[in-house]
Structures
1.
Amino acid sequence: MSNKRLIAVILIEDDKIIQSENFKHTNVIHNSSKIAIDTFSQWRVDEIVILNVSKNKNEKKFLEILNKIVKKCFIPIIVGGWIDNLNFAKQVFNEGADKISINSALVKDFNFVRKLSDTYGAQALVGSI
């Protein structure tokens, strides 16, 4: 029998933790990711997925948020949302992401996904559907 894994997901929209219903209807549930990270650490989750679901791409702001999270988290982190170029992917990994999650780019630009795989290894990519 395979082991069960607990993977938590944090949705971030413009520096707020949100709850979402099909990414359309959203409710802000907290202004700080610290409580979510502390809770998931207590629950001993195996991985945390952090998805940037902001309506506008703001790489610098998201990297600042990610930096704050990574400093307090000792659980493997998968990061997704707005990752559509190698430079941003490199910055996400440099901030401490263990893996990145790719969604739209899987369909729009498979060569980009291939370049990511060649650069960081297939084990560092998660396809998000």
Note: The chain has a mean pLDDT of 90.
2.
Amino acid sequence: MTGPADAVLLTGAGWVRAEQAGEDGSWFDPTEYLGPRGWRYLTPATRYVLAAAGLAMKDAGFDPAALPDDQVGVAIGTNFGAAPVVGRFDDVVAAESAAGISPAEAPAFSVNIPASQISMRHGLRAFNLTLTNPVVAGLEAVLTLRSAVRAGRARAGIAGATEERPGPGAAGVVGAPFPGEGAACLVLERAADARDRAAPPGPEVAGGCSVFVGHLGGEPERLAAAVDRAVAPLLEDAAGELPYAPPAGSFPLRDRVDEACRRVAERAGVTLAPVELPGATGQEFTVSAVLQLAGLAAGPGARLVLAVGPHGHLAGVRLRPAP
């Protein structure tokens, strides 16, 4: 947990997601968020995250130009952000050779392009990082940025996740009803800076966990012990009812982890109260948990969101009222 001196606040959130698609399957108009030009050769996942980052900064009233450009960083999680374009490039190379790939499109081959584009568009030079851990990478991006701000590596930044719709087989891997797409971003900044600029009130990102418990999936007692070690510290100063976004999706390990978390909370005298939020189905993959976190951030008091991947990665973020 943090104290007032090193608190990191979540001051803004923004997202775009395919809640309703048009008759042609489209749901996102880049010009609405990015203007009439400059996005033509960007992948859909990159367009989504640029839009979400812009909405988050607007929500926070955050102007990155007000800080030195080497003091604002970017951390973005994704599973399938580059998968469709990589698959298409593979088909083109097999059929036509590499000459069939446009030089303007070639940079999209890199999975780091979404985070890099945020940095380039807004002139952010502290760092840009891409995390690709299945399902939990969005929360891990939030924890990574929080750690960087606390360590003085940056004073503020954009954290979040983005996904482009993968093939239908991908949904079953994480227990989602069908594959989705979209992006969600959060603005994190030092409490002192947020206070100085009279930022909208936002919760403190008070702590988190990121552990691998997959190899314990077949051993209930060891799994429970691993979850206890990861989650118990996040409940140290909690009491009574704690609004809770449980792991999204539905698969056996997810259910076992959820049950273990509830037992940990019960021993700590805390009642985890599930809150139904956008992202709960898990269809947006890494974006899902960030959507849940953004929804929890709008509520009062302490809050907890967890995510678990199908192979056993567990991540969590605890929010509490700003000091």
Note: The CA atoms of residues 76 and 130 lie 5 Å apart.
3.
Amino acid sequence: SSNNETKVVCEERENFTYNVKIVENVLKIECMEDELWYKNAINFNFKPQLISVYLSQNNFENLSITSTTGDIKIPHDFTFKNSDLNLTTGDVDFRANVLNSAKFETTTGNIKLSNFTSNKLDAKCTTGKIEMSNVKINEDTNLELTTGDIVLNNFESSSYNSKSTTGDVIFKETIIKNHLEVETTTGSVVFKNSDANTLNIKTTTGSVKGNLLTSKIFVVNTVNGKVRVPDSISGGICKVSTTTGSVSLKINK
């Protein structure tokens, strides 16, 4: 496609109608399934649906996508003021930049952010994995996950808050300038060459382990878990609460 051409390409698919229109300077693409066609069908052969959008410019005000079934891929050479992606079943692979606020929500599917920057980030996933690499958030990061892992690699944010039920939370080369808050039930919380000014970590059966970069004052509350943390009288507060999980944290020297 030409860089000066804006067009929408949809794979031809029987019994589906595509409606492409511009409403108040917003490009809207709708896919509507013909009613009742399946009642007379003998064999079901559902082929993945592909919609490709070619745009003649790179900078946009807002990106808003709502999808029931299907993956969403946004390449790195786009910049949006705000983004709001909502999927029922499908993965998100997002590599563009968002200047102000980025929101991602999936029911069943993974959320992957790569080489990504934004002021604020909110991501919510029911069943799947939240994975980020080379990501910088200037202000707040809020993550919510029911079943699945959270893996951050080379991640930076002013503040961080995540709540999850089943799955690990792993920080690799991650720096949180202010406060880090993690709450999980059965998953472990792992730090690999990562740090925050202050930390508050709550688990039920999951362990808390790894290495931080600067001295902390450790406050650990556990019922049956083993505790191994350095004796320190300086640094920010690192509070860890767990029921049966072990706590093993070190400070890089």
Note: Residues 113 and 132 are 5 Å apart (CA to CA).
